[in-house]
Amino acid sequence: MGFQQSQRVFPHRSKAYGDCRPSDFESFKQVPQPRDGLRLIIGRLTTADGGDIQDDFTLPIEKRLMGKPLEWILREVFCPQRGILSDRAKVNVKFMLEEAGARLGWLDTSLSPRELKLKDSDIVEVLVLHKAGGSEDKALSEEASLPSRQSAIDLFQATADELKSGKLQGDEWAPKVWQGILKYAEDDHVVLPGLAVLADVVDAKPSDGKLAIAGGPGCDAIRLLFQILGELHSSNAAVQTAGWRLLAGLAEDPSLRPRLSYRGGAKTLALKMKRSKQMAPETEKLAESVLEKLGHKPADTTRANSITTISTAMVAVAPAPVEDAAVKWQRHSSEVAVKLERAVHKADPMDIEKALLNLISKMRSQDVNWQGLQQAGVGRLISELRSFEGDSEVQKLANKAVTEAGKLQIANFIR
What we know:
Elements (H helix, E strand, L loop, with lengths): L25 H5 L7 E10 L4 E10 L8 H12 L7 E7 L27 E8 L7 H7 L4 H17 L7 H11 L4 H17 L4 H4 L8 H12 L4 H15 L5 H4 L4 H11 L5 H13 L7 H17 L7 H22 L2 H16 L5 H6 L2 H8 L6 H23 L1
Parallel strand pairs: 1-4
Antiparallel strand pairs: 1-2, 3-4
Helix pairs in contact: 4-5, 4-6, 5-6, 6-9, 9-12, 11-12, 14-15, 15-18
């Protein structure tokens, strides 16, 4: 694209994108929250020329900018910091975490942070393209050319017809298919034919495996496939069969196996689905085939049973070590904070109420200490929820949490 990346060294995070939380970003810890504004965390930056970095950039958006278009803010503030020519940049944004709305796809960046209802500590992915008119704007315009689900289905059928007639050539069809699947990932009537045609391509020509997982800008095909099989359509037998058929075909290529097994990947998903007892016999055979190709060896159940028996006997003789009170309080504080933070990002009043009730219960039973809750950022979250819009019950529970926090501080002081 001709964009000149800055010379800044990007800190490497060992966590997967979906597991990251605001506290995992060093820049977020260093940037104070603007008064009546927010901090937007940019966790990933991709460009149309294939650039893809795990970024760690916290963008403070002050009150005076809350009404400006988000794309303008990013072009004027973020792009220069990353050595990107802002006058030629088209900036696209989507949430990075599922609980914050990653499935919504690309946001309308012509709207302001206030109109998009962005919250402090939201984590996003940024895709930078040339402005409309440049050849490198093609990838996003192709995604926009799927205005309806029927257009996506027609595209899959046309691809299948070309495959049958032997006319499927080039490397442009795969990103189009994946962009259609991404856009309608929650619709099984779209996902099923999309995965089926990809599986057919790999079955017909295993050497096209790498091409078949070319998702295009902003779409990690392997990650999306795991999400479809493990979360979005875990109980749809037809989608499961098509997806595992595709995975089995991809696993035939030794060069793709590291990608399929990265961080557990396909192995973890296959074992999880088998344990759920939801797989049809045909699908289970495909999953076992994937496990075998990825080098998974079933555990020796006889040895495992003997170890379990010995461990049980040892537990009966020797009492478990008593956990230090300070360690226990810190662990419980972290668990409570994570639940509350996830609920706040998801912005579901029911989930927030459950998390607040859990917090209040822990404080009343003194299973947590106030210092641990403060370090985990619970105080800030409670403060935000006291002015939560849309559900007065959330505000009431947040005020109760403040009261219990005061009691907990007194109890901690006495202890």
